[in-house]
Specification:
Layout (H helix, E strand, L loop, with lengths): L3 H13 E6 L2 E9 L4 H15 L6 E3 L4 E7 L1 H9 L21 H12 E8 L2 E10 L2 H12 L6 E6 L8 E7 L1 H10 L5 H13 L1
Helix pairs in contact: 1-2, 1-4
Length: about 210
């Protein structure tokens, strides 16, 4: 059975990570936004250090507007690949393998840290929260919707953006309202500090 650290990492990779192989080198890469994700990248580096018991560095790629973790680790690469994670482009058929059923909350927590967003809108003076997950894999978002429904967190999957020139469409799992947000915080939680801070600010203002 996979543990919570591996489940968190798998979810993080589902969002902004990839496995890539170049000749005899096996790379695990994760990126974050240069303006808002440094603290999250630091936490991710610490998580991977705990898993592999080796130091992990992150790099500032100012030219590309991102932070990046990129490690060469054949053993960890092979383990994650063996759990069902694709090598190269993740594609539209991405799913969470059944081996994570008992740890699905940690996978969702990791995924939200990288491809999730907490939006607070102002509706005639009333703050209204919205949780969003984005992916080109509609299958993945529908799977997460089912899992969240099991713990009484309800949302829907929408077509977010339709691209031309044969590019994959972007889909969004949207979960509305204060009750769903509080349930999500209790049952799943926030790995990315910016999400935790936005949640705390919303609750304080309420």
């Amino acid at each position: 059975m996979v543990n919570k650290e591996i489940s968190l990492l798998y979810g993080i990779l589902l969002g902004d990570g990839c496995l890539s192989r170049i000749n005899n080198s096996y790379f695990i890469s994760i990126v974050g936004d240069l303006k808002s994700d440094e603290r999250s990248i630091i936490k991710i580096a610490s998580l991977i250090e705990k898993i592999r018991n080796k130091p992990v560095k992150y790099y500032k790629r100012e030219k590309y507007g991102k932070f990046e973790i990129c490690i060469s680790d054949k053993k960890l690469f092979s383990y994650i690949q063996g759990l069902g994670f694709p090598v190269g482009k993740k594609g539209t058929q991405l799913v969470v393998p059944s081996i994570f059923n008992a740890q699905i909350g940690f996978v969702i927590k990791g995924y939200f840290a990288t491809d999730g967003c907490l939006v607070i809108t102002n509706n005639n003076g009333i703050q209204y929260p919205r949780i969003e997950f984005s992916s080109i894999s509609q299958i993945l978002l529908k799977q997460l919707k089912v899992e969240l429904n099991k713990i009484d967190i309800n949302g829907n999957v929408y077509l977010s953006k339709k691209y031309e020139n044969h590019w994959n469409n972007l889909y969004r799992l949207q979960i509305n309202g204060k009750e769903n947000l509080i349930k999500f915080k209790k049952a799943v939680g926030f790995f990315n500090p910016k999400h935790k801070e936005k949640y705390n600010a919303y609750i304080k203002n309420k």
